[in-house]
TrEMBL record:
Belongs to the DNA photolyase family. Its cofactor is (6R)-5,10-methylene-5,6,7,8-tetrahydrofolate; FAD. Residues 6-140 form the Photolyase/cryptochrome alpha/beta domain. The lineage of its organism: Bacteria, Pseudomonadati, Acidobacteriota, Holophagae, Acanthopleuribacterales. GO terms for biological process: nucleobase-containing compound metabolic process; response to light stimulus; response to stress. GO terms for molecular function: deoxyribodipyrimidine photo-lyase activity; DNA binding; FAD binding. FAD binds at Y222, F262, Q265, I266, V267, W268, R269, D270, F271, F272, D362, Y363, D364. Signal peptide: none annotated. This is Deoxyribodipyrimidine photo-lyase. It comes from Sulfidibacter corallicola. Keywords: Chromophore, FAD, Flavoprotein.
Amino acid sequence: MVEEVSVSLFWFRRDLRLEDNRGLEAALRGPHPVIPIFIFDRNILDKLEDRRDRRVTFIHRTLSGLKEKLRSWGSDLWVFEGTPIEVFGRLSAAAPERVRVRAVYTNRDYEPYAVRRDAGVAELLTASGATFESFKDQCVFERNQILNQSGSPYTVFTPYKRKWLASLTEADLALCAVQPLRHRFHRVTTSPPLPSLADLGFEASESSFPGTALHRDTLRRYGEERDFPARDITSRLGLHLRFGTLSVRDVARQARDIDPVFLSQIVWRDFFMQILHHFPHVVKGAFRRDYDRIPWRRDEKAFARWCAGNTGVPIVDAGMRELDRTGYMHNRVRMIVASFLCKHLLIDWRWGERHFAQRLLDYDLAANNGNWQWAAGCGCDAAPYFRVFNPWLQAKKFDPDGTYVRRWVPELGSGDYPAPMVDHKLARQRAISVYKAALDGSTPDPRERDSLFD
């Protein structure tokens, strides 16, 4: 009879790397050999509308690489499909290779679904006699680590950033090494195979994905040139930070030593994560609840034109087409297209947020929600409602020779390109009037709200 072996599991989620992985290091330093696992969560996959979703392809390729590396170390990655409760129920009852699961280690996730998921898994494991251990890994500071003098969370970025920078120590950015501990992985002879994309109900995307290298030249030029989309002086690391194929601590260390403007982007990321943790109502409504009174226009035809990059406003259309074709959009352009939807078209920011969630390679709930609420004026540290980006002036300032626009809107200047959907001056006046009436507690006249679309 084969003797049962006690093991720990390390559950990969938003941390798809072997090096500088806090939860994985803790598991390998624990009392039992470690089996790494990944779960294709049907609760997430079943909500994806595009069967060729680029992110699923990226995850699948990354997992294939992890399996190959772990096999070279004499271990393997066990990959499952189903809901986490179903998978851990099976593993608790009868794991492969006659192993007994004594502990599950993982890195924390702060999104509402993830919090509920982990609470359910922890309860199931406790009932089976196993423990559930979670660690901070996807941000530099989390939850209650950065609070104001009264012990409350910051809701304005600038003082949060000052406290974040003042609190930062070498220990916060210390990198942990996993390779010296690789002998602590469970030695396996068989493991569940990696499901194919077809097994999961998806098709491979032909997308190419950015690398993980952070070039020093990009960092040096970032502060001065980041707002010019044609120059593309951005890191393209959002995808890797989203899925943890790159350590945020490693990125923050490099940014700290070269460019404080780039480091601020890491601080913004932490800021929005702690906002989501402390104020989960932002997932469905405005951070500033009085903005929920705004009577958004439910104009599906206008929304469809915005999504398709067919608004007649060149820089807006360029950004939306770039998103559709690549899964990426330059950050300055994201602000312009978001402002146009919320202010010029008076369409609910949540519609835009949902569209970005479906398309962005680097989609992150906290950052996406925070930035959309900033654009709509309803979030923490938001742009005031009377700030309405002029997309023509934005294009003139940040794409002065039209290089970016021409790349994505080659028909500009021909009879094939439509006239602008709205006049900027009239749309701005209308937005300010509707916002002001709603925030004053009165009911805006629907005729005024829809006046530009008669």
